[in-house]
Specification:
The chain has 334 residues and is mainly alpha-helical. It has two domains: 4-179 and 298-325, HUPs (Rossmann fold, 3-Layer(aba) Sandwich), CATH 3.40.50; 203-293, Tyrosyl-Transfer RNA Synthetase (Orthogonal Bundle). Helices cover 53% and strands 7% of the residues. The chain has 13 helices and five strands. It has helices at 17-30, 42-45, 52-68, 86-95, 100-104, 107-114, 122-137, 150-166, 213-221, 239-252, 256-263, 268-296, 299-324; strands at 4-9, 35-40, 77-80, 142-144, 176-178. It has a three-stranded parallel sheet with strand order 1-2-3. β1, α1 and β2 form a beta-alpha-beta unit. The two termini are 33 Å apart. The structure holds adenosine-5'-triphosphate and L-tryptophanamide. The site of adenosine-5'-triphosphate has 20 residues, from α1.
Length: 334
C-alpha cells in the first residue's frame, strides 16, 4: 500500500515562486508514488487579519494553481481545510496536550513578539496545533514543506508521541518532514537575507506565480547581486547569485553545479536573462493551465470530492481519538 503524504499552503496572499519551489512542485513530483493529500489552509490565513473578498480570491487562485502546477485531482485529494471540520476539532484536543512552553518557542509567533508587534491573535499562537491536527488526522507519513515549516512538523511528532504514550495506543502515525536539499528556502530578490515571503516584502522582492511574464523578467533583471563578477554558488559571499542559481536549478531539475558550469563565463546581465527565461517558461506553462482551470469551472467539483474523501479519514480518526480519551457517551455526531 502507498504511504500517505500530506501538505498544505496558507494563501494569505498570492502564491509565489518560493511556495512553488519549496512546496508545490514537490507535491506534484510525489503524487504518483504516494497517496497524496493536499489542502488549502484557509483557517491558517485568518490568524492574521484578512479582507474577506481578497481572501476568497486568493483561495480560489491557490486551488487553481495547485492543478495548474500539475496536481491531478484523479490522483491527489485536494480540499479546503475548513470544509473538513474534524481538523479544527482535533486541533482543540491537541492544544489540550501541548504546553505553553512549546508554543512559545515556535518562531512564527516568537518573531512577531520579538519585533514588538501587538494585537497578535490567539489563533496565531495556537496555529501549530491546527497544523499538527491537519497532519495527524489525515494519517500522514510524510510532510513535504520548505525549511521554515520543519519546526511545526517536529512539534507535531512530539504531540503525537506524547498522546500515543499517554493513552498506550497508536492514536497517530508519527510523521516525517520531507525537505528538499535544493530550494527549501528561496530568498527575496532584493533583501537576500530574507525568505521570499508573502508578508514583509515589497513587490520587487517576490515573483508571484500569476505575475505577467514581463513583470517577472523585470524583477529578475533587477535582483540584487554583488561585485564579485563571477557565477559561483557561495551563499555567504554571493547570496544573490546563489539564490538565482537555486531558482534555475530547481526549475530545471538539474543540480546547481551543472548550472554553474553552463553559466560560468556569463556576465551578470546575461546570467540574469538566462534565469529570467527559465522562470518565464515555468510561469507561462502554469498560467496557461491556470486559465484553463478557471474557464472550465472544475474547481467546485474537485474541492467537493476532495473534502468528502478527506472527511472519511478525518472523521474515523477523530472518532477513535475521542473514544480513547473517554469523551464519548452516545458516539453520535450532530
Ligand atoms: P509566507 O512567509 O510567504 O507568508 P509561509 O511559509 O508562512 O509563507 P505558506 O505560504 O503557507 O506559508 O507556505 C507554503 C509552503 O511553501 C510551505 O511548505 C513553506 O515552507 C513553503 N515556502 C514558503 N516560502 C518559501 C520560500 N521562500 N522558499 C521555499 N519554500 C517556501
Ligand atoms: N503552516 C503551513 C501551512 C500548513 C501545512 C499544514 C503544511 C497548514 N497545515 C499541514 C503542511 C502540513 C505553512 O506553510 N505556512
Amino acid at each position: 500500500m502507498k504511504k500517505r503524504m500530506l501538505s498544505g499552503i496558507k494563501p494569505s496572499g498570492q502564491l509565489h515562486l518560493g511556495n512553488y519551489i519549496g512546496a508545490l512542485r514537490n507535491f506534484v513530483r510525489y503524487q504518483d508514488d504516494y497517496e497524496m493529500v493536499v489542502f488549502i489552509a484557509n483557517l491558517h490565513c485568518i490568524t492574521v487579519p484578512q479582507e474577506p473578498t481578497a481572501l476568497q480570491t486568493n483561495l480560489r487562485d491557490a486551488a487553481a494553481l495547485y492543478i495548474a502546477s500539475g496536481l491531478d485531482p484523479q490522483k491527489a485529494t485536494i480540499f479546503l481545510q475548513s470544509d473538513v471540520m474534524a481538523h479544527s476539532q482535533l486541533s482543540f484536543i491537541l492544544q489540550s496536550h501541548s504546553y505553553l512552553g512549546e508554543l512559545n518557542r515556535m518562531t512564527q509567533y516568537k518573531d512577531k513578539v520579538a519585533k514588538g508587534e501587538t494585537e497578535l491573535t490567539v489563533g496565531l499562537y495556537t496555529y501549530p496545533t491546527l497544523m499538527a491536527a491537519d497532519i495527524l488526522i489525515q494519517d500522514a507519513h510524510y510532510v513535504p514543506v520548505g525549511i521554515d515549516q520543519k519546526q511545526h512538523v517536529e512539534l507535531t511528532r512530539d504531540i503525537a508521541q506524547r498522546m500515543n504514550n499517554r493513552y498506550k495506543k497508536t492514536l497517530f502515525t508519527i510523521p516525517e518532514p520531507l525537505i528538499e536539499k535544493v530550494g527549501s528556502k528561496i530568498y527575496s530578490l532584493q533583501n537576500v537575507e530574507n525568505k521570499m515571503s508573502k508578508s514583509d516584502t515589497t513587490e520587487k522582492d517576490i515573483i508571484y506565480l500569476l505575475d505577467p511574464v514581463k513583470t517577472a523578467t523585470k524583477k529578475i533583471m533587477s535582483a540584487v547581486t554583488d561585485s564579485e563578477n563571477k557565477i559561483a554558488y557561495d551563499p555567504v559571499n554571493q547570496p544573490g547569485i546563489s539564490n538565482l542559481l537555486t531558482i534555475a536549478a530547481s526549475l530545471q531539475v538539474q543540480n546547481i553545479d551543472t548550472i554553474v558550469s553552463e553559466c560560468k563565463n556569463m556576465q551578470y546581465g546575461a546570467f540574469k536573462k538566462y534565469v529570467a527565461d527559465i522562470v518565464a517558461k515555468t510561469l507561462s506553462e502554469i498560467q496557461d493551465k491556470y486559465n484553463e482551470v478557471i474557464e472550465s469551472n472544475m474547481l467546485e467539483k474537485v474541492l467537493q470530492d476532495g473534502a468528502e474523501k478527506a472527511a472519511i479519514t478525518a472523521n474515523n480518526r477523530l472518532a477513535m481519538v475521542q473514544e480513547t480519551l473517554g469523551l464519548e457517551i452516545i458516539g453520535g455526531k450532530l
